[in-house]
Amino acid sequence: MIVRNSWPARKRHIVKTITWRAIGTLDTMALGWLITGDPIVGLKVGGLELFTKMILYYFHERAWYIYRPNRNKNRKWK
C-alpha cells in the first residue's frame, strides 16, 4: 500500500474539479438553450450535469493520479 501525504494533491484535484465543471456547465447550458430555444431547459440540464460530472471527474482524476505505469514497483513510499 502506498502511503504519503496526499492532502495537498487532493485539494488541488478538488479545485480543478470545481473550476472545470463551472466551465463545462456553462457550455452545457448554452448548448441546451441553443438546441431547444428554451433557456429554462438549458438551466435544468446544466444544473443536473453539474453534480454528476463533477463527481465523475473527481474519481477519474484520482484514478489517473494513482495510476503510474513507469514507477518502480519495488520502491516503498513513506
Task: Give me the secondary-structure topology.
Elements lengths: L6 H30 L2 H28 L12
Helix pairs in contact: 1-2
The tally of beta strands, per DSSP, is 0
- Binned, the helix content reads over 70%
Uncertain runs: none
- Rg from Cα: 18 Å
N-C termini distance? 10 Å
* Main sheet record: none
- The overall average pLDDT, rounded, is 83
**By helix and strand content, what is the structural category?**
mainly alpha
The share of residues in extended strands comes to under 5%
Order of helices and strands: HH
The total count of helices amounts to: 2
- What is the general shape? elongated
Task: Describe, in plain words, how this protein is organized in 3D.
The protein has 78 residues and is an all-alpha fold. The protein has a domain of 53 residues. Helix content is 74%, strand content 0%. Helix 1 runs antiparallel to helix 2. The longest helix has 30 residues. The protein starts with 6 loop residues before the first helix and ends in a 12-residue tail after the last helix. The model has no long low-confidence stretch (mean pLDDT 83).
